[in-house]
């Protein structure tokens, strides 16, 4: 709580969020810049082998885009990163996904703890049917923050962080469903920021939004990457090119290519990547 | 009309035009709305008819008994020969005792069951349990009445020796059991219709399953849950057989639940099955009591509408 109160502006937040602090003392010192290190990860929906031998090393304070045609497993992959994929009862996995050096698939890893560190923004805006204020305060509240003053601060800071404060500051007590789709999505991003996660997963966050709202969310992603590591699944290749530092191209459950975004889009190594980004399929 | 009769040569548009010009079809198209309006009116008119009968006969009753005596009288002694007393409060209290006990039993259990069914149970479990609940809702109330009198009352007498054979507690509990499936089933419907995306949103913030159930799904479904509770309590207020069998026939004005009581409905049964002659004050009294009962459930329903509107969380 003290930490939360001290963070009154972004610069301080950056200072506090150093990797060593986030890792803490007990975690072994692996590659400190790595957030999610996936090793030989496989996932099945029943008999369907949806993700095949995935190896990806995602770095912090970057925007990593995951592109690929429908059904290639890109959404499944980011849902595996906060273990939301387990909500489907028939899912089986093996391999490793190391978050900050610890395997999240291990039996001792508490999924609630993981999800407080790894936030998620969904394809369709899904605010709670509550007031804007209660939407943002929900996360802090369930994690034990009850003090009204601190909550007020968190709400304002999160809404500012999601670039929607000015639009909603006069109607914090109104139902979030009264907002437009683009505003709702930014509320969802603010809700995610309210518990100050380390990583934000975004599952096609703009696919249900109009172009102007999309632009706002994209600009927001650019701002957020100073403080957060962002992994974004997108259907829209231009979007990946515009906002991401690295891009992973998924096809039929495999990672075809993973590299700096400018390389993927200018000189892809794999023919299939070139075919996809030049619009020959998908 | 060369093409007539030969399907192959007839164009689709011609066939459509012919069907559209069919007189019979046009007639049915005009007739059906009228029939539908009539069927709708039947139910509305029946309700209005019932209410008017109640009002007329109740009016007749108040020609004989003063309305203040009726509303504020603490003694209900219609059969005491020369000086009958018609104070409704003991009957109202009897009904309230049973309904409150029933609600105390059914509301927590019903909502807990609904949370289990909607949030925790597997599809298979839900598919097994829900039909069983609905069967339970279909058990005739006379069976519940016997259950209360011959099973629950003796059981309770083991625990509370001072409990009379006719009392408020036993029928209260059994009425609660009777309305429990209704609350559980309707609340489950309300909770299941909360979109999954909202649950996912909460889970993704690190909420536990219980936190999602209590702090997201329950509030989102609250209007449906309140509606189910009010509907169930309305049924408890109007419940007749269980209270007639196990509650007794002694209208008392106190808050004791171990002694014999009489509810409004049980009084109506007592008079209807007895030999009160047409046109006597006792005969008219059942309409007054019936009307009171009607006012109660009406208020309950209006209250429910107001509450569920106020607490509705749109999604």
TrEMBL record, chain B:
It is a multi-pass membrane protein. The chain crosses the membrane at residues 31-56, 85-111, 132-153, 165-184, 216-237, 282-304. It comes from the Bacteria. It is found in: Cell membrane; Membrane. One of its GO terms (molecular function) is phosphate transmembrane transporter activity. GO terms for cellular component: plasma membrane. The keyword Glycosyltransferase does not apply. Keywords: Cell membrane, Membrane, Phosphate transport, Transmembrane, Transmembrane helix, Transport. The keyword Transmembrane helix applies. InterPro entries: MetI-like, MetI-like_sf, Phosphate_PstC. It holds the Pfam family BPD_transp_1. CDD domains: TM_PBP2 (cd06261). GO terms for biological process: phosphate ion transport. Its main location: membrane. Residues 92-304 form the ABC transmembrane type-1 domain. Belongs to the binding-protein-dependent transport system permease family. CysTW subfamily. PANTHER family: PHOSPHATE TRANSPORT SYSTEM PERMEASE (PTHR42727:SF1), PHOSPHATE TRANSPORT SYSTEM PERMEASE PROTEIN (PTHR42727). Part of the binding-protein-dependent transport system for phosphate; probably responsible for the translocation of the substrate across the membrane. This is Phosphate transport system permease protein. It comes from Ureibacillus sinduriensis BLB-1 = JCM 15800.
